[in-house]
Design goal:
By secondary structure, the chain is α/β, with parallel strands linked by helices. The chain has a domain of 138 residues: D-Maltodextrin-Binding Protein, domain 2, CATH 3.40.190.10. Helix content is 33%, strand content 15%. The protein contains nine helices and nine strands. The strands form two sheets. A six-stranded mixed beta sheet has the order 6-5-4-7-3-8, with helices on one face. β4, α3 and β5 form a beta-alpha-beta unit. The protein starts with 12 loop residues before the first helix and ends in a 22-residue tail after the last helix.
Length: 289
């Protein structure tokens, strides 16, 4: 890339975000949007975001429940014990937001069990405390969400991260467990229903660059963004992008998605104000595609 020499390192996102939020280890990286919004609302300005979105999914369709828990549909989650790797992570924020908007469920109606303890959590770097009225309990360090679900100690989990990394402890493959099933009988169909009704394809991660570098080299965000767009073009040409049409890059093209996530982060008590997309992105990158 002209003017930039990149030295890359691959990490599981859980680890990458921990290093960035705690130690600002890398100049450019993928980043959790919810954590970035939380940090920005607190006045922390370490990072400038690029509107290159590296992960999307209909996150609420990943909810898994224990057979015999009495959970047959979303509203049956009321009063249940729900596992989550981290309460503030974007995947969980989207899932709770959709559960509230689409099915009328509030976080206060459930008991939450969080797997990441302080030494491994992203929230420890952003001063996370349980929002008022929300019961969040720590998963004991000698166990994890997957094992608790199999033993009937929790009833469901918003997501289950079992790929080995240094932050998440779960390792069991719940998809192979006969006692565990998806909350939605047809997760793909539920994702399609949501998209056709709401018109949102939720975003989880984006790219950030160290603000001090941007201040020293104002041309850097545009050049990095152009590289991301070119990488996306090459992936599309190779047929590696499963959702090329409803998943554009650009902050203008995704304004509704970003504003919806900002509303969820605020409504769920994780920020004291709405974070505007303009608060996150480089000021000269008002990009629509």
């Amino acid at each position: 890339m002209e003017g930039v020499e990149l030295h890359s390192k691959m990490l599981h996102p859980s680890e990458m975000f921990w290093w960035q939020l705690h130690h600002a280890e890398f100049d450019v990286s993928e980043m959790s949007i919810a954590s970035l919004m939380i940090s920005t609302a607190q006045g922390k300005r370490d990072w400038v975001a690029l509107p290159a979105f590296t992960m999307r999914r209909f996150f609420h369709t990943s909810i898994m429940v224990r057979r015999g828990s009495g959970i047959r549909r979303p509203r049956d989650l009321v009063g249940k014990r729900i596992g989550v790797p981290e309460y503030q992570q974007t995947w969980a924020v989207w899932s709770r937001g959709v559960l509230q908007d689409e099915f009328g469920l509030r976080p206060e109606q459930m008991t939450w069990f969080m797997e990441r303890n302080d030494d491994r959590s992203h929230g420890a770097a952003t001063g996370f405390t349980p929002p008022p009225g929300v019961d969040i309990r720590a998963v004991p360090p000698e166990t994890d969400i997957g094992e608790m679900l199999l033993r009937g100690e929790i009833d469901a989990t918003l997501l289950h991260l079992s790929r080995p990394n240094l932050v998440d402890r779960s390792r069991v493959d719940l998809h192979r467990a006969e006692t565990i099933r998806s909350l939605f009988k047809d997760p793909t169909g539920e994702g399609r229903r949501y998209y056709e009704k709401i018109g949102i394809f939720p975003i989880n991660h984006l790219v950030v660059v160290r603000r001090s570098l941007v201040e020293a080299h104002p041309w850097l965000p545009a050049r990095l963004y152009a590289a991301c767009v070119e990488a996306r073009r090459l992936a599309d040409a190779a047929g590696n992008d499963p959702f090329p049409c409803p998943a554009p890059y650009g902050n203008l093209a995704n304004r509704n998605v970003l504003e919806t996530l900002s509303r969820y982060v605020h409504e769920q008590g994780l920020t004291d104000r709405l974070v505007e997309p303009a608060d996150l992105f480089a000021s000269d990158l008002e990009l629509g595609v």
